[in-house]
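Action item from last week, closing it out:
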Amino acid sequence: MRISTIYLVVLFVSFAVQNISAQENKDYQQKAEQLKKRKERISEQEKEALKIEVEEINKRYEKNQISYEESKVLKESAAKKRALNIENRITIIENEILLLERNNGDVLSVEAMDSTGISALEINIDLKRADGSSILWEKSRRLNKELKYDRRTYSDFVMAIGLNNGLIDGQSINDSPYKIGGSRFFEMGWSWRTRVFENTNFIRLNYGFSFQFNGLKPKDNQYFAVENGQVELQEFEYDLRKSKLRRDNLVFPVHLEFGPSKLHKTDKTMRYSLTNQFRLGIGAYGGFNIGTRQKLKYDRNGDKVEDKLKRGYNTNDLVYGLSAYLGFDGVLLYAKYDLNPIFKNALIEQNNISLGFRFDF
């Protein structure tokens, strides 16, 4: 009984080993066939890539970005590169096939060391279609085709901060009822910068959107109150530790920007850089008031009180004005002035004015 059992186990193991060996042999043969199909497509792929490169060179020549001689040199260089690619890639595939056939598919994996010092197996993944063509290679080729030689539009994150105040009709800024150091503004948004002319970057259109936060802090223990439809400053009944009115706006600025730039040109790209270059922008903005609130901090009967009053305070819903900036690189002196009055139907008009620094990242 025991001998029969051992015999059956031996037969089963032998059968399993034979099946595994046959499967492995089949797998490596399939892989070898796939490699041969890839080898057949190499020449076609490289010729197609060369065709795309030549088309891009011809486009640059037609736009007068390069001379005829330059285009001829670039085409010859591209042809040599593709010919070498065909030769090297075919050699690599042939060596892989020989390695598989010589070892019946039993090829050791290459052990690689990553940047952390941990040992890991190197895995080469390539997605295939039914005809054996490479999906990854096709996607890479399309991405390369989409690379623009001349990039005319750039984008920046914009942040500005500085002093804020109100210009009152018939009064100078020195007579302002608002604290000059205490009234501040903050702005952040996104901007796009597009070159206006084809062959020079001296004039650009700078446009985008920004959130503005304009604060006004009254002097002499005063706060904002609404009386008979008019917003006015009144004496507060307790000693104020803080009194501030803040208006939040969403605006869409547009500036005409002037200044030199550095041209960086290669055989594949042409880029203009504003690094360490002088910039001057003059323009306007328009948008909406999205919120107005007043914050009061004071002591009442020994208790610290903080009131946050979110009301309209008769502020204008539409916001529009003029703005300008100048400076070097991404650090700029920045000024803006609201053409719309701060408060609607005010007997004495006052307009918001700001001066500070703008940073383009």
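Closing note: The first helix runs from residue 2 to 62.
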